[in-house]
Design brief:
heterotetramer; A alpha/beta (328); B mainly alpha (322); C alpha/beta (517); D mainly alpha (352); C: Rossmann fold; 2 domains; six-stranded mixed β-sheet; 24% strand; globular; D: mainly alpha; ABC transporter involved in vitamin B12 uptake, BtuC; Peripla_BP_I (chain A); signal (chain A); carbohydrate binding (chain A)
Chain lengths: 328, 322, 517, 352
């Protein structure tokens, strides 16, 4: 199964014509596939955008991996819009790429465009989150599980506090799948502990400024740190903003309020090393390698798992300084 | 003889042809009809929204609520279909009625309370997005066979391209928009209102009624766009179409309609939407721009385009004066 | 709903009206209207017969426009009744009034500048085929309507590419298109030249013979006497009386309007010679601009008034703009008191003593939202620059002085100028320049759209300024007025200067002869 | 009677102020402790202080926006300019040894350059303001990301920390900065003729030209001023989180700023502007945000609540509503009058 050579037979051609076309293809096939081998792969990559530092490092990592392998990577930034991502995927199909990496901004709404890719026999690899479509429509997904991340954070917190804790939560952008799933995962674990409750939950829109502003209002509304035992932030940036808010209100993060968040961006390691954050769960940004491998494997006719899990570990302050040095 | 009023739209057409020609020259894949039919399909919801926006802008107003309306209508439709088991046709009907009603309410506030459209529709923008959140936070697939069936209707073109249902719906709504604008009293009232609202009132144009109708129409077109968007993605998502109002305004302005009102054509808006689509397609075909260069390129092309249009208009005016 | 009832009633009434022709076409009974605290109309009653042309006269603020706006439903009335063809009507807006049979043409052309002539003519009345507007039929209709007012122009071109005069005629053509029974012409002649006025009068005469009732509002008494059958005079919102035109002398008419006898208003005998020694102020040396104004020479000395005469579109305004510098000439030299201004900014021109009251007061003169005070100090402040503001005390002193001197009627100096009457707005604009103490003042149509009282006052002011040694360049379409004060008259025709009349040559006949030659 | 006159004259001023007070009172009744202010570490502490503290960036942006709107323009790019100036501040602090005041000047200069760009497009190329500034709105974030290379650049500087979160005389330093800027702007606008010129140009550009006001330069400087204000706001926002977030800093802030200007009673069609009331408008918006955050309302209700309250405020403030109300009461009065009998002053027409 090689790239450019196979096109879906055109719907308006009669059956006899289709046969003729197939014959032509079968003659051309070895030639074209040989040339495709020589010219390496052309991969389209539809990225959500560059809304966070984590997203940028993911992009950089995938680009670097493609360059290392000598692939021609067609990169498209969708500026957080699903419609732009669909447009990009359709453009990749029109262009005739060998494979498509898609980091879907939302889980639903991909069936049609995935079907089109399938008709064009272009494998699609989902990056860093899944879609709610028939798994046969895509090759595989290389992603971590947001729910698991939320659950991991909750488990750590439960262990740390012996299942007794008033938690304030900083949600991600309202309606985003990372926010919804991390909350679901977190809630599913703490629901087992009757003495763990979320006393306040608001959206900090995944930003530092948002995290800081919301944390300030939490501290005011709860009358300082007395009634708050821990902060769960859906990403590190919000946690970093909230840490600033605590310090300014005279509250000591980690001492007065435990801080757990997700992503493992470099700055949170620095905060942990400085004793201002307790735990972070890594969201692995280096997804290019496994994704490209999957496309190659599929070309060779090998079977590929539908979910290549890329969940990261939970980091604690003990290794923070070393990790920070490594990642900076 | 080139009419002064047609000049901006001709400039737009010229730019569209130039950009398309550049793409064909530069990229092999661009020459396929698939690119053109993709342009029609992918930008359908934007163009539909922008057609409604054209009426608003022609009348001298603005409607910032369209993006949120698209998301709200989609979520409402999904709720009706998936949670109440309603047939999609009824759901679409209800969604359209709701869209028109909300548009009309904004029109009433603008017309009777004389609050500026920019602000009323800004509040509408917050409100509709908020209502979408209230119905459903999560993204919901709408996998009703009727909806997927609509998506699969397809008239093939030579080459790999084909006219999808979405593209055809857009073209029908475009034709409807053109007829409304140029061949009905309502359309003429819109132009009159944008040209000089004071005089329009004295000439017997029912100003308040027309304003309400305009925003109701914009509500209809953005609701229609919400429906099309739901068919396009087969799902509903409360965060869908963020910032589409700005894209729609840009499409209208690129299409040669004056933001001050009174002058412009619905067909120009179609071209404006297609030009924005082409810019995106060119950037994707190039594929080497990183995130920030993409933003710069979109901004730069917007600037280039506006200056070019301005230049063509000035040049022709000078020539015709000489 | 009530509209529908009215209309069906009207159909019935029309039949009845045909049976009894003696019934007046329009009856207004005890009409009153007040705005917050001001009684704009107080118990006004009048009747108009079919085929009657009625002049509606009065000074600004007399209530003419309020009466028209109440008639056409723009303002709701407080009290009183309006009967058209014997049936009570109550228009809800001007569109409704049109459907009822009352069409209005306003002083400022109220059409849509960005639409074509055809679209303007047929707006809201387009004929349709299969529910859609048929532009073919619309064009035919538009040509018919244009022919009716004797215009031969391309109806497909955008309205604002035509002159104001043509736009005014288009507006009249439109008003006639709706099977009007009553036609209200609110100062339609303000921007028409004499030929066009003649054309309009012929049209009015024809409409009259067709049985239309016409209300004609104007400031030109000549026109009142040449076309109207009867006159209604309003003063301070009250109806002073209705008179047969043939039986009312001009002096009586003016007395009724201003509420005092004519002797106070009669122009003093005028003198066209300058009494002082000639110091040159403005010198235009071969100044012109392609497709705008043919090159010409012009000098104005201190204490001299130079009039600019000519038909509409002859280049009067163009001359004023080139002299002032708001349009830059592409050849020639402009100097004022030995300062070359050919290439300098308007600010510089104002600093060396130039001042300009433009023709279009609403567009180019007033800043409607700003107060009388701010409007008045604008030019002086602009010439000083933003960093050296005039202190509030000084502003108040200057403005107070001017309000006194020019007798500007305003409740206080912080009222937005847009709420003042036209005459008072014009005085504020004049005052704006007077406080800059200009050496030379250019006035383009300084008395347009102003009532008789203010008209007279402005002419007095012009004369006073001249006596104080100011040079003035005054463009006007009213020859009578030019002859009254100008020492010299430049006659313009087809964008060039055809003649310059000096001293005793200045007379209405001489100017007309020059224009006609 | 006199009191009535006062109310009548200051209706425009009172409406936004009353709205603000009302919103604060309602929130206080829902959220206990909302009004409490106490001293913590030598500075004031409480929700009301938070409102002031959080309102400063929007207030600065709205100040520039008000001036631009006065010239019949609009500046959609302020959010992007905030991102750019924040990025410049962060990158220069991290990558150079320049003294902090040089860094701040550079950031402010960058903002003014952005304003200059907008101004040139609007006043020299005659592009409609909404389109002209849309270009920088789209491209500006790209520029900011280019400067930060897509990362959130965190920095440390004592001076910048103080600007972001320091206190002086018990009040946040950034509030002092905003007050200083507001006072300065009001002084410049009202004590020189600049305010008059801007309002004149905004209300009637043709008439202004004829009295010798150079509209082009004026409009240009309005955009430069708006750029400067946005840059100040950008520095404060970056200092606040000690990092430059090119993607999110000041996102959609332009809409809040425009809303504030309009809540203050200005027209988007140019002309009269009300600088101090604009600040009241900003406080209304920020109070609303803070109130929603402290009230414990679920996140998904934020927008609906905000939109509803803003609409309510707008409707209450609308001159039309006031007119209807007064008409209603007038009619009542009138009805009473006519019942007591209002003699007609009949005067027949004098027929000759």
């Amino acid at each position: 199964m090689k790239s450019l050579s196979i096109r879906p037979s055109l719907p308006w051609l009669g059956a006899f014509k289709r046969k003729a076309v197939l014959t032509t293809f079968s003659v051309l096939l070895p030639v074209l596939s040989a040339s495709a081998m020589a010219a390496d792969l052309t991969i389209g990559f539809s990225q959500i955008g560059s809304e966070s530092g984590w997203r940028t490092s993911e992009t950089e990592s995938i680009k670097a991996e493609a360059e290392r392998r000598g692939y021609d990577l067609k990169f498209s930034d969708a500026q957080q819009k699903q419609e732009n991502q669909i447009k990009a995927v359709r453009s990749f199909i029109a262009q005739g790429v060998d494979g498509i990496l898609l980091a879907p901004v939302v889980e639903t709404g991909w069936d049609q465009v995935l079907k089109e890719a399938q008709r064009a026999k272009i494998p699609v690899v989902l990056i860093d989150r899944g879609v709610a479509a028939d798994p046969s429509l895509y090759l595989t997904k290389v992603a971590s599980d947001f729910k698991e991340e939320g659950a991991l954070a909750a488990s750590w917190l439960a262990a740390k506090t012996n299942g007794r804790c008033n938690i304030v939560e900083l949600q991600g952008s309202v309606g985003s799948s990372a926010a919804i799933d991390r909350k679901t995962g977190f809630d599913s674990v703490i629901s087992n502990f009757p003495n763990m409750t979320i006393t306040r939950s608001q959206s900090g829109s995944f930003t530092r400024a948002g995290g800081k502003e919301v944390m300030e209002s939490f501290l005011k509304a709860e009358g300082g740190a007395k009634n708050i035992c821990a902060l769960f932030a859906h990403n590190d940036d919000m946690a970093l903003g909230a840490i600033l808010a605590m310090k300014e209100a005279g509250v000591k993060p980690t001492k007065d309020i435990l801080v757990v968040s997700i992503d493992a961006v470099p700055d949170i390691f620095k905060a942990m090393a400085d004793g201002e954050a307790n735990a972070t769960i890594e969201l692995n940004p280096h997804l290019g390698g496994p994704a490209f491998d999957a496309i190659l494997a599929a070309q060779d006719g090998k079977k590929v798992d539908k979910w290549i899990k890329a969940n990261g570990p939970l980091y604690l302050p003990d290794t923070a300084a070393a990790e920070y040095a490594k990642r900076k | 003889m080139i009419n002064e009023r047609n000049l901006p739209i001709l400039a737009t057409l010229l730019v569209f042809i130039l950009l398309y020609g550049f793409g064909m020259y530069e990229y092999k894949g661009f020459r396929d009809t698939l690119v053109f039919s993709n342009l029609l399909t992918d930008n359908a919801f934007l163009i539909i929204t922008a057609i409604g926006m054209t009426f608003v802008i022609l009348s001298g107003g603005i409607d910032l609520s369209v993006g949120s309306m698209i998301a709200f209508i989609g979520v409402l439709m999904a709720y009706l279909i998936t949670s109440t088991g309603m047939h999609p046709l009824f759901a679409i009907g209800i969604a359209l009625v709701v869209g028109v009603a909300f548009g009309a309410i904004m029109g009433v506030i603008i017309a009777f309370f004389e609050i500026q459209a920019f602000i009323v529709t800004l509040a509408g923008m917050f409100l509709f997005r908020g209502l979408a959140y209230l119905i459903n936070l999560d993204a919901v697939p709408i996998d009703h066979p009727f909806i997927t069936g609509l998506y699969d209707i397809y008239v093939p073109l030579p080459g790999r391209g084909g006219l999808t249902f979405i593209a055809m719906a857009m073209l029908v709504l475009l034709a409807l928009g053109i007829l409304l604008a140029r061949r009905t009293r309502f359309g003429m009232s819109v132009y009159a209102l944008g040209g000089d609202s004071h005089s329009a009132a004295l000439l017997g144009v029912p100003v308040k009624k027309t304003i309400i109708k305009i925003y109701a129409l914009s509500g209809f077109y953005s609701a229609m766009s919400g429906v099309i968007f739901a068919i396009y993605t087969g799902s509903a998502y409360p965060l869908a179409a963020v910032g589409v109002e700005l894209d729609a305004i840009a499409a209208v302005v690129i299409g040669g309609t004056l933001l001050t009102g009174g002058v412009g054509y619905v067909f120009g808006t179609f071209l404006g939407g297609m030009i924005q689509g082409i810019i995106q397609t060119l950037i994707t075909f190039d594929g080497s721009l990183n995130s920030w260069w993409t933003k710069l390129a979109v901004g730069g092309l917007l600037l280039f385009f506006i200056l070019l249009q301005k230049g063509i208009v000035v040049w022709v005016k000078k020539r015709s004066a000489a | 709903m009530s509209q529908l009832v009215n209309e069906t009633l009207m159909v019935k009434e029309t039949v009845e009206a045909a049976q009894s022709a003696v019934r007046p076409l329009l009856e207004i009974k005890h009409l009153s209207k007040s705005f917050t605290g001001v009684q704009a109309l107080n118990d006004v009653s009048l009747e108009i017969q079919q085929g009657e042309i009625r002049a509606l006269l009065g000074e600004n603020g007399a209530g003419k426009s309020t009466l028209i706006k109440v008639l056409t439903g723009v303002y709701p009335r407080d009290n009183g009744e309006i009967l058209l063809d014997g049936s009570l009507i109550s228009a809800s807006d001007s569109g409704h009034a049109q459907r009822l049979g009352i069409s209005t043409v306003y002083q400022e052309v109220n059409l849509i500048p960005t639409m074509s002539v055809m679209e303007n003519l047929t707006l809201q009345h387009q004929e349709k085929t299969f529910g859609l507007i048929s532009w073919k039929k619309a064009e035919i209709r538009a040509r018919e309507l244009l022919a009716q007012v004797g215009l031969d122009i391309d109806p497909l071109r955008q309205l604002d590419t035509y002159s104001i005069a043509i736009q005014q005629l288009v507006a009249i053509a439109r008003a006639l298109s709706t099977q009007a029974k009553m036609l209200i012409l609110d100062e339609p002649t303000a921007s028409l030249d004499s030929d066009e006025i003649k054309q309009l009068f012929n049209l009015m005469a024809r409409l009259k013979s067709e049985g239309l009732g016409i209300i004609f509002v104007t400031h030109f008494l000549d026109q009142v006497y040449s076309i109207t059958d009867s006159i209604t005079v309003l003063r301070n919102g009250e109806c002073i009386g209705t008179f047969k035109t043939a039986e009312l002398s001009r002096s009586d008419l003016v007395s009724h309007m201003v509420g005092k006898s004519l002797e106070d208003l009669a122009p003093t005998a005028h003198d066209h010679s300058i009494k002082r020694e000639r110091t040159e102020l403005l010198q235009l040396n071969n100044v012109g601009k392609q497709r705008y104004l043919q090159p010409l020479d012009l000098n104005i000395a201190a204490g001299e008034i130079v009039g600019v005469a000519g038909l509409l579109g002859s280049g009067r305004t163009e001359l004023c703009e080139l002299a002032y510098g708001s349009v830059k000439p592409d050849q020639g030299e402009v100097t004022l008191s030995n300062h070359s201004l050919t290439k300098s900014s308007l600010r510089r021109a104002i600093q060396v003593g130039m001042g300009y009251c433009p023709e279009d007061r609403k567009q180019d003169g007033i800043v409607a939202e700003l107060s009388v005070r701010e409007n008045m100090i604008l030019a002086l402040q602009a010439s000083k620059g933003w960093w050296s503001p005039i202190s509030m005390a000084e502003q108040q002193k200057l403005v107070e002085e001017m309000i006194q001197r020019l007798a500007i009627k305003t409740p206080d100096m912080d009222k937005p100028i847009g709420e003042l009457s036209g005459g008072n707005q014009q005085k504020v604009i004049l005052a704006r320049w007077l406080i800059t103490h200009p050496a030379l003042l250019i006035l383009d149509e300084p008395t347009r759209g102003i009532d008789i009282g203010a008209h007279h006052e402005i002419i007095q002011i012009i004369k006073e300024l001249c006596e104080q040694g100011m040079g003035l360049l005054v463009a006007s379409s009213e020859l009578e007025e030019l002859v009254m004060f100008a020492h010299r008259v430049v006659v313009m025709k087809d964008h060039h200067k055809v003649s310059e009349l000096h001293g005793d040559e200045v007379s209405e006949q001489a100017i007309l002869r020059t224009i006609a030659s | 009677m006199k009191k009535n006159n006062f109310l009548h004259k200051h209706q425009k001023t009172l409406a936004p102020l009353l709205s603000l007070v009302l919103i604060i009172l309602i929130t206080a009744s829902v959220t206990p402790g909302f009004l409490s202010i106490r001293m913590v570490d030598g500075h004031l502490f409480g929700s009301l202080l938070d409102i002031l503290h959080r309102a400063t960036p929007t207030a600065l942006v709205a100040l520039g926006m008000a001036v631009v709107i006065g010239t019949r323009g609009i500046d959609l790019s302020v959010g992007a300019v905030i991102a750019i100036s924040g990025a410049v501040t962060a990158v220069l602090t991290v990558n150079t040894d320049w003294p902090v005041w040089v860094v701040i000047l550079c950031a402010l200069g960058t903002g003014m350059l952005c304003g200059l760009w907008n101004g040139i497009l609007v006043s020299v190329f005659n592009i409609q303001p909404i389109v002209a500034t849309l270009i920088l709105m789209v491209a500006g974030r790209g520029i900011a990301q280019m400067i930060t290379e897509g990362q959130i650049v965190t920095f440390h500087s004592d001076v910048l920390d103080a600007i972001g979160n320091g206190y002086f005389l018990a009040f946040p330093i950034r509030v002092w900065i905003a007050i200083g800027m507001i006072v300065l702007t009001v002084l410049v606008m009202r004590k020189t003729a600049l305010g008059l010129f801007i309002e004149a140009v905004g209300a009637n550009v043709r008439a202004s030209r004829l009295v010798g006001i150079e509209a082009r330069l004026l409009v240009l400087s309005a955009y430069v001023f708006s750029g400067l204000c946005a840059a100040m706001s950008g520095i404060i926002l970056a200092a606040d989180i000690r990092g430059a977030d090119a993607n999110n800093a000041g996102l959609w802030l332009e809409l809040d700023a425009i809303l504030a200007v309009v809540l203050a009673g200005a027209s988007l069609a140019g002309g009269r502007i009300y600088l101090l009331l604009t600040i009241v408008g900003v406080l209304i918006i920020q109070t609303l945000t803070t109130a929603i955050l402290t009230s414990g309302l679920p996140a998904q209700y934020n927008l609906v609540v905000k939109a509803t309250i803003i609409l309510a405020v707008l409707l209450v403030q609308s001159p039309k509503t006031r007119q209807w109300l007064s008409d209603f009461f007038m009619k009542k009065k009138h009805a009473e009058n006519s019942r007591t009998g209002n003699p007609d002053t009949g005067k027949g027409s004098i027929e000759p």
